[in-house]
């Protein structure tokens, strides 16, 4: 009799379907793979520099890694734009919340990881970190973590945020 006074049940967020344009998702997958390659290449070079005991890590070394990350992010963004522009796919990929959290979100995050790492280093510097060597080590560690986080999430389904 008083059924009209009952609250409507809230929709279950795990059953909600999220739609992502296929061309945007496909471009992000390529961008994530490019980011992995770029981060591994930059980290290898930076680790080699850290092993060079002839001179300490200086501000210029830090700026070089930040520039390489920035250049990598620019290349990745350009590739994404090109891929989206040339694709004629008008469809959407559909994801439930769990699938989105375990595949889509980490893919987009990896595609933007060089910028995330730059932002973290700048935040640390703005927060008072003064040692170029420590900031350099932070950059190297964050590159390794970004790659590992992505692979662990994709291979195990464990959310690593």
Name the descriptors.
161 residues; mainly alpha; two-stranded antiparallel sheet; elongated
Q: How would you describe the shape? A: elongated
Strand sequence of the main sheet, in spatial order?
1-2
**Structure class:** mainly alpha
Task: Give the number of DSSP strands.
Answer: 2
Helix percent band: 55-70%
Q: So how many helices?
A: 5
Describe the structure.
It is a single chain. The protein is mainly alpha-helical and 161 residues long. It contains 5 helices and 2 strands. The protein has helices at residues 22-51, 59-86, 97-111, 113-126, 132-156, and strands at 18-21, 92-95. The protein has a two-stranded antiparallel sheet. Helix 1 (22-51) packs across helix 3 and helix 2 (59-86) runs antiparallel to helix 4. The longest helix has 30 residues, at 22-51. The chain is elongated, with a radius of gyration of 20 Å.
Break the fold down into its secondary structure elements and pairings:
Layout: E1 18-21, H1 22-51, H2 59-86, E2 92-95, H3 97-111, H4 113-126, H5 132-156
Antiparallel strand pairs: 1-2
In short, what is this structure?
This protein is mainly α.
């Amino acid at each position: 009799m008083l059924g009209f006074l009952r609250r409507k049940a809230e929709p279950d967020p795990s059953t909600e379907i999220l739609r992502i344009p296929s061309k945007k998702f496909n471009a992000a997958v390529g961008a994530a793979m490019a980011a992995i390659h770029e981060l591994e290449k930059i980290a290898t070079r930076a680790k080699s520099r850290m092993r060079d005991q002839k001179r300490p890590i200086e501000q210029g070394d830090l700026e070089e890694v930040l520039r390489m990350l920035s250049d990598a992010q620019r290349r990745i963004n350009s590739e994404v734009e090109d891929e989206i522009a040339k694709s004629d796919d008008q469809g959407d990929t559909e994801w439930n919340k769990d699938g989105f959290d375990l595949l889509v979100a980490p893919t987009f995050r990896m595609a933007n990881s060089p910028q995330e790492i730059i932002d973290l280093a700048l935040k640390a510097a703005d927060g008072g970190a003064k040692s170029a060597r420590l900031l350099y080590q932070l950059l190297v560690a964050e590159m390794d973590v970004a790659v590992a986080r992505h692979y662990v999430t994709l291979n195990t389904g464990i959310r690593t945020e």
